[in-house]
Amino acid sequence: MDPSRDLFDVTIIGSGPVGLYGIFYARLRGMKAKILDALPELGGQLVTLYPEKFIFDVAGFPRILARDLAKNLIEQALSLAPTVCLGAKVTMLKTHEEESKRVFELVTDDGLSHFTRSVVLTAGIGAFRPKRLGVPGIVEFEGKGIHYFVNEKKIFCDKDILIVGGGDSAVDWALNLSGTAKQITLIHRRDQFRAHEESVKELMSSPVAVKTFHELKAVSGNSSVQEAVIFDNRTGEEHSLRVDAIILNLGFHADLGPIKQWGLEIDRGGIKVNYRMETSMEGIFAAGDVASHPGKLKLISTGFGEVATAINFAKNLIDPGSKVFPGHSSDSRSLPSPKVGL
Ligand SMILES: Cc1cc2nc3c(=O)[nH]c(=O)nc-3n(C[C@H](O)[C@H](O)[C@H](O)COP(=O)(O)OP(=O)(O)OC[C@H]3O[C@@H](n4cnc5c(N)ncnc54)[C@H](O)[C@@H]3O)c2cc1C
Fold first, then answer.
1. Cα angle value 94/95/96 (rounded, 5°)
2. pLDDT (tens digit, 9 = 90+) per residue, 216-268?
3. Which of 146, 171, 181, 203 could pair covalently with 195 via S-S, beta carbons 3.0-4.6 A apart?
4. Is the pLDDT assigned to residue 334 strictly greater than 60?
5. Which of 22-36, 196-210, 245-259 is predicted least confidently?
């Protein structure tokens, strides 16, 4: 094993609401903590599946939009400066014994290894992958004008953009980029949108050219995408659009995939845990949707409690002199210095 590797006390796999609260909690306990996610953004199901839905059953919030809850959790998580690695899907787990201590090596799909004394799995329903279209030209132009995420708005400045999809992400990005891009066309294969009603109304009165019953047929260009052929799925009539970028917002697939092959005991499709949120492998804990135990409820509120339990027992495992009970956060002496002004 590389002796210069950076060894963490705990590594959390998955940055949904449960992982985000977990990484905050780990830093609160003074642990050297890292969080990994397959997606390029933090927030899990809250931001990928239902950003525009209201949530009514998270303590302390009479009602809150999923994306605002994610924003608050991210602010809280980053306030104690954890290490964050995005676009990093964990594919392999290796264990090493080192001076009678166990070290886990998590290998991500970018070929990097992450070393850690304990692991908390908060992988939810699995690693999200954007749904792709089997349309000629798409694969060839991925990274050359075909996008599944918008990380930087400025790359669309003064560009002609085609957005494909009828959910919250497609509608939100069409609205969000309409002051930045030169021209936006949004196509959707039906005339019913799966997006927030108010956003759809706003879209219809915006400068975005909305074409319902239209689908993408082909994409072409030279070094980057230049043309999209779309068709009306009622008549078959085709149109050609000059485009600089195409954003595909077609939803996500989720798959626990490789995690199920790590030899952890599986129960009712999830990772089996005990009351300490320990899995069948010492040093590996699980919490949130991925964890299975009698009486399991797949809710954000129960996930928060589970991950706090997992982190407190992980702390005690790697530092047996420390207490499982963390004390009260309102006793400021127990807080590591926060980053101010996030
Ligand atoms: C439409 C809808 C509405 C809902 N409404 C409510 C509600 O009102 N109240 C409520 O309490 N709950 C609600 N839920 C359920 C709630 O969203 C989940 O319980 C919650 O998101 C679980 O959080 P999590 O952090 O465990 O997992 P997730 O949110 O699923 O996050 C898991 C993260 O792990 C990452 N990941 C997975 N595998 C890997 C890997 N191998 N490597 C790296 N990263 C990985 C994923 O990319 C993802 O970001 C709703 C769910 C849906 C779909």
1. 125
2. 999 999 999 999 999 999 999 999 999 999 999 998 887 888 898 999 999 98
3. 171
4. no
5. 245-259
Please, which pLDDT band fits residue 336 given cuts at 50, 70 and 90?
Answer: low
pTM for the complete prediction? 0.83
Listing DSSP states for 157-222 in one string gives TT-EEEEE-SBHHHHHHHHHTTTTSSEEEEEESSS--BS-HHHHHHHHTSS-EEEETEEEEEEEES
The answer to whether the CB of 32 falls within 8 A of the CB of 336 is no
Reply yes or no on whether the pLDDT at 173 is more than 60: yes
Q: CA 252, 255, 256: angle at the middle one, nearest 5?
A: 145
Tokens linked to 228: 């999209």
Residues 107-163 have pLDDT tens digits of: 999 999 999 999 999 999 998 888 999 999 999 999 899 999 887 788 999 999 999
Identify the bridge partners of residue 284 per DSSP, sorted by sequence position: 119
Measure the CA–CA gap between 342 and 339, rounded to whole angstroms.
7
- Domains of the chain, first to last: 7-128+253-334 (3.50.50.60), 132-250 (3.50.50.60)
Ligand 1 surroundings by CB, under 6 angstroms: 13-19, 36-39, 44-46, 49-50, 53, 55, 57, 89-90, 122-128, 259, 288-289, 298-301, 303
- Supply 193's token pair: 């949108």
Q: Which of 68, 300, 307 to mutate to test the pocket of ligand 1 (most atoms within 8 A of CB)?
A: 300
Mutate to test the pocket of ligand 1, among 23, 36, 45, 125 (most ligand atoms within 8 A of CB): 45
Determine the Cα–Cα distance for residues 55 and 331; give it in Å rounded to an integer. Answer: 30
- Distance from Cα 6 to the centre of ligand 1, integer Å: 28
Phi-psi region of 192 (alpha: psi -120 to 50; beta: other; left: phi over 0): beta
